[in-house]
Amino acid sequence: MRRFLPSAAAVACVLAVSACGGGGGGTAAPPTQVSDPSKVSGEVTWWDTTRPDSEGPTFQALIKEFQAKYPQVKVNYVNVPSDQAQNQFQTAAQAGSGAPDVIRSEVAWTSQFASLGYLQPLDGTRAVDKPDDFLPGPLSSTKFNGKTYAVPQVTDTLALIYNKRLLKEAGHEEPPRTIAELKQTALDVKAKTGAAGLALNVDSYFLLPFMYGEGGDLLDVANKKVVVNSPANVKAMQTVADLISSGAAPKPATTESYANAMTALKEGKAAMIYNGPWALSEIYQGKEFTDKKNLGIAPVPAGSVKAAAPTGGWNLAIYAGSKNIPAAYEFVRFMTTTEAQAKIAKEISLLPTRTSAYADPDVQGNPDVAVFKPIMDTAVPRPWIPEGGQLFQPLLEGYQALVGGKSGPADMLKGVDEQYRGIMKDWS
Description:
This protein is α+β, with helices and mostly antiparallel strands. 41% of the residues lie in helices and 14% in strands. The chain has 18 helices and 14 strands. A hairpin with a 2-residue loop joins strand 4 and strand 5. The protein is globular, with a radius of gyration of 22 Å. It comes from Nonomuraea composti.
């Protein structure tokens, strides 16, 4: 699964909630629980947002296990590209038809969908099993106005992913730990191997480690302040611009940069990228990593303040207008068990959201998960507010202008700040 931005249509709809209207309500009490869950019947349509080639088979195998346990429940598996799922779900929920019973919702979408009345409240239902077992960070993304509207399925953050062979040929046995080291390592790779040092991804999510590294952020939620246009963030944008102008990172295209960076890494044309655990199953398909030991994973390099990356992940949420609520409860419960999360971690290295899953031998036996777990401990929570998903598009447009030479760091952030104030109207 690659990390995508919300579509312009989805953003526009959220900006005019009163015009878009509500979905299935989302405020009614949950239906009475059945006495024997194994006798639940019905048909559950699930919109999955994973990559169908590298991640999808694991989830489809879990569906087969679910249907063996619940033979009277039919699951309709639909893979929806993650750059389309948010807008498609919102459109269907608003229309009152065509929405799935269960959606794999990016953590930033959950509070947005809940605020619009599209999600079924889950407190006290069978969908939420052993809530105290979930890690606090992922669990916090499922809440809106004190109620639970989703269950955490997987969590993630960003790391520096690198080609050990190329770094070694450039004279580096260890990955860079600071931005200064990142720049020098990338220049050494370029000079000594001919490969690009660092392949950048022009995506707002991937810009956040540079901001966090300088002590910056997008919003100060506690004080309801827009802080994107700060000296710390200007310094971060100057860092990104310098990586490009120095040749440490080749100038990226403003579109398809994610695919370009992944291809360059897999083919040995770039030594380093920023990416998350969801990318590993695809990376291992590349010719450079048929020997998995050639892949290195390290924390994102630190700026002048710290090394930190955003908290990401995916939740399972139930459409408030579903006609198969009891079956949907059982499906969400099953897909978020310790056993299901352990299978996902073992096979495709996606990080569990349950504490108990990290004690499972299959999880402990996956070295990629072992590397990412301590990186997750330093991840920065994003603002779990309905407007959270809207923050990325203005930042993307600014990033594209910066990379394209149409705007300098200060002007870029000034423009983003102006757009944020149009979204967060009552913030200072």
